[in-house]
From TrEMBL:
<keyword id="KW-1003">Cell membrane</keyword>
<comment type="similarity">
    <text>Belongs to the HflD family.</text>
</comment>
<dbReference type="Pfam" id="PF04356">
    <property type="entry name" value="DUF489"/>
</dbReference>
<protein>
    <recommendedName>
        <fullName>High frequency lysogenization protein HflD homolog</fullName>
    </recommendedName>
</protein>
<dbReference type="InterPro" id="IPR007451">
    <property type="entry name" value="HflD"/>
</dbReference>
<dbReference type="GO" id="GO:0005886">
    <property type="term" value="C:plasma membrane"/>
</dbReference>
<dbReference type="GO" id="GO:0005737">
    <property type="term" value="C:cytoplasm"/>
</dbReference>
<keyword id="KW-0963">Cytoplasm</keyword>
<dbReference type="InterPro" id="IPR035932">
    <property type="entry name" value="HflD-like_sf"/>
</dbReference>
<keyword id="KW-0472">Membrane</keyword>
């Protein structure tokens, strides 16, 4: 993959996270259960061979690519809430990258959860709870918290709260990856067309 393709894949990971947060907050469930698995794996894949390997394959990020295309295309298709979530993820990731202590703590705690997940087979709800704790204790204090809107009936359920925070952590992970492969905020203004065309090309790959 070239640089632009890698950046767009990472953005698609962010879009996937943002859409999953929105779905869970509004309906109490993520539309496709495989999305949670993709994002869970992306958070706990600490030594990926490539940007795409973070998520598995194009198939795993295709829903995120479609969301990204909608967000970057016609203004009538844009969802301002999803944009706000993604902007929040980028903001927190920038704060994270500038804080060595937070980065070290995050790495240590993710290694611990990764072992629980991959080596000891902890149940998913326990992994989500652990990731939610990492988001709450390591990521949230770094900057303006991401305010999640939705149905209060679903938002007050503790397991949904854990799930949402774990999804937000995955989004921040993708935002960090986006910057590591050269993503810049100015690209949204100066290279929007190129990013959109790249996403449109990637979504067609099999």
């Amino acid at each position: 993959m070239n640089d632009w393709q890698q950046r767009v894949v990472a953005l698609a990971g962010m879009a996937l996270s943002a859409a999953a947060v929105q779905q869970l907050a509004r309906s109490g469930q993520v539309l496709h259960d495989t999305v949670t698995e993709t994002l869970l794996n992306s958070t706990l894949n600490l030594t990926p061979d490539s940007t795409l390997a973070v998520y598995g394959s194009i198939d795993e990020v295709r829903p995120g690519l479609r969301t990204l295309i909608q967000q970057m295309g016609s203004s009538r298709q844009k969802d301002l809430e999803l944009t706000r979530y993604m902007v929040g993820m980028i903001h927190l990731s920038r704060r994270l990258l500038a804080n060595d202590d937070a980065m070290n703590t995050l790495g240590q705690r993710l290694e611990q959860v990764s072992r629980q997940y991959h080596e000891f087979g902890f149940e998913r709800y326990r992994i989500l709870e652990s990731l939610a704790g990492i988001y709450r204790e390591v990521i949230s204090p770094l900057g303006q918290p991401i305010k999640v809107n939705g149905n209060p009936v679903h938002l007050k359920i503790e397991s949904n709260q854990h799930h949402i925070r774990a999804l937000l952590l995955a989004g921040v992970r993708s935002a960090v990856l986006w910057q590591q492969v050269g993503g810049k905020r100015r690209h949204f203004l100066l290279s929007r067309k190129r990013m959109l065309e790249t996403a449109q090309q990637l979504v067609k790959l099999s």
